[in-house]
Design goal:
about 90 residues, single chain, three-stranded antiparallel β-sheet, 2 helices, alpha+beta
Length: about 90
């Protein structure tokens, strides 16, 4: 008899940038809290809550989140980079 597939929890990964210019990559946020009219805004609250819990357990203060973006998405300057090789005739 075949087994019933288990329900998979779907997550979206985010890169988080903090006020002290540090970065944490691939932070997991449940996909069901994202979308709708707020887009990715609820991810900040989830990540800040995760950070608060981590800070409680470690005894270190939680860092303030400066910005976040989905992991794997390109930065604005990466999408509009100049050509790799400039011509020598300039």
């Amino acid at each position: 008899m075949s087994r019933k597939p288990a329900a998979r929890a779907e997550f979206t990964l985010f890169d988080v940038f903090y006020e002290d210019d540090s970065q944490r990559s691939n932070r997991r946020v449940p996909s069901d809290v994202l979308g709708g009219l707020d887009g990715d805004a609820p991810a900040r609250a989830v990540i800040e809550e995760q950070d608060r819990l981590i800070a409680e357990k470690s005894g270190a203060p939680a860092l303030a989140v400066k910005s976040l973006r989905r992991s794997g998405s390109k930065k604005a300057y990466e999408t509009a980079r100049p050509p790799r090789y400039a011509s020598a005739s300039n």
